[in-house]
Amino acid sequence: MNKIIFAVVVLSLAGCNAAYYKAVKEQLAAGYRWVKIPCRPANPDVPSITMDTHDGQKLVCNVLQK
Fold first, then answer.
1. What is the spatial distance between Cα 33 and Cα 36, in angstroms, rounded to a whole number?
2. In degrees rounded to 5, what are phi and psi of residue 44?
3. Sheet containing 58-65: which strands, arranged edge to edge?
4. What is the pLDDT of residues 20-37, one digit of tens each?
5. Minimal CA–CA distance to 37: which of 56, 65, 12?
6. Alpha carbon 30 to chain centroid, angstroms
């Protein structure tokens, strides 16, 4: 039973990764690139990949630019 649950979880995550990699490939083809910036608090209204600090802050340290 545990193997079935594990397989379902892995397969569901694989779908999320596929969408992510597809988006990355399209962005790179369109001329976008990741640029390092000084880390700053994340804007909750903007989708972002954040780093969580030990004190609970969510920081953004890279932006996507064309």
1. 10
2. -65, -15
3. 33-41, 58-65, 51-52
4. 788 888 998 999 999 999
5. 65
6. 18
